[in-house]
């Protein structure tokens, strides 16, 4: 029984497990994702990716295949249709096949794992999605990451960190990654793999080799726990949000990798001071926070930046609107402050 | 056109009762259609002299529903009774309830739901919405519970009362409980117990069918009792049932019992 209903009000993250899982599986190079269910489930998701990926400069459309269940398959069971679909996909040049199940397949009780467990010429990985029965969009993301992680093997640790669970459907995914890389570079740490963004199956051995995993946000903690259990890799639960959180992030990563953070902190603190000085012109004003997001991390980061610039935050609707966006690192705060400047000087 | 459905616990004798009821109704000169709504597809076997007729779902599975014809799914059995078996998936896969819904849609498409009486013989219990299909709008308006005096059989009958009550509360629903048929196991005070159960759920005992070896003999000879031993007391019983079904105008919304009430009732008739 689904005991994890979608959060309300409806948000992008409250969507179907299928979309969440596909946001992961479609980032594996050469992989095909089979949606085991009626055609519509594949169609809606394909449409979403078709509309979203160009915003992230991705022109290659994902390799989605539907097992195209009809009424007869529902009545008599859909395992034969899934077998035919996997066979057809395996006859193409694919590196990996992911199989995602839909609500109706979970309802009629198809044994998807058993079908995937047969002797196929390429890895066929079942992702426990089960449509709405499986939970929310985020559960789909987590389950896909965990399913893929189980295909990796433990490896000797080397000095690098892995980035876990980037939000492939968010607009600033690469900017946020770049910011985290910048912070890691201050500590002299390279990135092992982006799990999962533009991932080549050949890179999978690096999954178990990192000194630490950095999760995109705390909703990925179940994935972090799984990686720690499977590979012994500790994790940082989130990308940094805001100025002080960025400094705390540097300290946490340094501690996990047994690195002295002093020099990195000095550089970052200097950068933050420089940015605040650059935006002194919007200080000593009155502003009111507005969307598009008001989650705890973003709100905290916005409040901290406002305080640093002596902006008085009120609920006065006549005050300058201060848009709150999801921010990652110091650069994220700088982007937000640019938006505030435009709003204040508009 | 009268549309009736027989529901009850698995193995209680629904198919035997349905087939003999259909045979008896046909003996009254009526045009009868019996629809077996159970994947094990043996509802109409005695009317078909032991033949398992092809099921609607078998044909759909093999050929799809596009090029099927009415003649391929409706078979004439004893005394002209028209027989249909819905069929369904192999045990353990798919969705049998959806199979029932698909069968009904196909029968409607062919205009097969016609005649003087349609008898729906439905799988043991209302396990999902698909098996409640015969009770839905446009299908059986009169539901008969088939039960013995055994507690589990009464329990299943009581559960079906819950389903009827739920469906009856819908605005357009005409589904009602038409009565209780006691297909006896030979327990002491069984008729009294089932009659009291029927009264407690706001209905009445329509017919008491005693346990009789002739039922087994008829089945071994692949016939209904009506055909095999028409002069027997058992055949008279089924004919009496047919008459009462045709004359029955007492349709009620049932009042299902709580489990402890049911147990107390059964205990009182030990």
Fold and architecture overview:
The complex is a heterodimer of chains A (346) and B (270). With 346 residues, chain A is an alpha/beta fold. Chain A folds into three domains: 12-149, Rossmann fold, CATH 3.40.50.1980; 161-270, Rossmann fold; 274-344, no CATH class. Chain A has helices at residues 17-25, 39-52, 71-76, 79-90, 103-108, 112-116, 137-149, 173-186, 221-231, 243-256, 262-278, 296-308, 329-344; strands spanning 31-36, 64-66, 96-101, 124-127, 161-164, 191-195, 212-215, 235-236, 286-292, 312-313, 320-324. In chain A, strand 9 (286-292), helix 12 (296-308) and strand 10 form a beta-alpha-beta unit. In chain A, helix 1 (17-25) packs parallel to helix 7 (137-149), helix 7 (137-149) runs parallel beside helix 9 (221-231) and helix 8 (173-186) crosses helix 13. Helix content of chain B is 39%, strand content 16%. Chain B has ten helices and eight strands. In chain B, helix 1 (14-27) crosses helix 9 and helix 5 crosses helix 10 (259-268). The longest helix of chain B is centred in the middle third of the chain and has 18 residues, at 151-168. The N and C termini of chain B lie far apart (41 Å). Classes of the chains: A alpha/beta (346), B alpha/beta (270). Chain A binds chain B through residues 71-79, 107-110, and chain B through 57, 60-61, 64, 88-90, 93-96, 98-99, 102.
């Amino acid at each position: 029984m689904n005991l994890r209903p979608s959060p309300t009000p409806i948000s992008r993250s409250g969507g179907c497990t299928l979309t969440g899982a596909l946001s992961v599986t479609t980032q594996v190079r050469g992989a095909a994702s089979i949606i085991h269910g009626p055609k519509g489930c594949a169609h809606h998701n394909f449409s979403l990716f078709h509309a979203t990926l160009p915003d992230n400069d991705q022109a290659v459309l994902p390799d989605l295949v539907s097992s195209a269940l009809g009424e007869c398959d529902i009545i008599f069971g859909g395992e034969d249709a899934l077998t035919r679909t996997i066979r057809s996909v395996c006859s193409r040049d694919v590196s990996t096949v992911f199989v995602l199940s839909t609500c109706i397949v979970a309802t009629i009780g198809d044994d998807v794992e058993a079908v995937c467990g047969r002797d196929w010429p390429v890895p066929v990985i079942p992702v426990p999605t089960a449509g709405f029965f499986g939970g929310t969009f985020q559960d789909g993301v987590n389950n896909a990451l965990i399913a893929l992680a189980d295909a990796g093997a433990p490896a000797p640790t080397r000095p690098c960190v892995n980035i876990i669970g980037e939000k492939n459907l968010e607009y600033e995914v690469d900017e946020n990654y770049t910011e985290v890389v910048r912070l890691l570079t201050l500590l002299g740490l390279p990135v092992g793999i982006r799990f999962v963004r533009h991932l080549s199956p050949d890179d999978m051995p690096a999954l178990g080799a990192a000194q630490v995993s950095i999760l995109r946000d705390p909703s990925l903690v179940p994935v972090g726990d799984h990686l720690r259990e499977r590979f012994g890799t500790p994790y940082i639960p989130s990308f940094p949000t805001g100025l002080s959180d960025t400094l705390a992030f540097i300290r946490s990563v340094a501690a996990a990798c047994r690195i002295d953070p002093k020099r990195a902190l000095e550089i970052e603190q200097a950068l933050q001071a420089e940015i605040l000085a650059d935006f002194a012109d919007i200080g000593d004003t009155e502003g009111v926070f507005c969307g598009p997001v008001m989650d705890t991390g973003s709100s905290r980061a916005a409040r901290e930046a406002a305080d640093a610039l002596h902006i008085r935050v009120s609920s006065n609707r006549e005050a300058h609107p201060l848009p709150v966006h999801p921010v990652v690192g110091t650069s994220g705060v700088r982007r937000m402050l640019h938006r505030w400047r435009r709003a204040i000087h508009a | 056109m009268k549309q009736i459905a027989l529901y009850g616990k698995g193995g209680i004798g629904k198919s035997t009762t349905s087939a003999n009821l259909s045979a008896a109704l046909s003996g009254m000169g009526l045009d009868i259609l019996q629809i077996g709504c159970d994947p094990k597809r043996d509802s109409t076997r005695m009317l078909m002299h032991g033949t398992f007729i092809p099921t609607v779902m078998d044909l759909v599975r093999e050929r799809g529903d596009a090029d099927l014809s009415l003649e391929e799914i409706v078979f004439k059995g004893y005394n002209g009774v028209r027989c249909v078996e819905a069929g369904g998936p192999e045990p353990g896969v798919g969705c049998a309830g959806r199979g029932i819904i698909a069968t009904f849609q196909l029968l409607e498409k062919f205009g097969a739901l016609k005649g003087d009486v349609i008898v729906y013989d439905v799988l043991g219990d209302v396990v999902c919405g698909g098996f409640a299909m015969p009770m839905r709008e446009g299908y059986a308006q009169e539901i008969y519970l088939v039960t013995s005096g055994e507690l589990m059989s009464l329990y299943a009958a009581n559960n079906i009362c819950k389903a009827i009550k739920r469906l009856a509360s819908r605005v357009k629903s005409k589904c009602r409980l038409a009565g209780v048929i006691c297909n006896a196991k030979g327990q002491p005070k069984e008729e009294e117990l089932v009659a009291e159960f029927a009264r407690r759920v706001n209905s009445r005992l329509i017919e008491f069918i005693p346990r009789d070896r002739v039922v087994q003999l008829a089945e071994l000879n692949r016939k209904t009792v009506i055909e095999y031993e028409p002069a027997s007391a058992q055949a008279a019983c089924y004919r009496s049932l047919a008459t009462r079904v045709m004359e029955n105008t007492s349709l009620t919304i049932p009042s299902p019992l709580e489990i402890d009430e049911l147990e107390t009732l059964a205990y009182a008739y030990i």
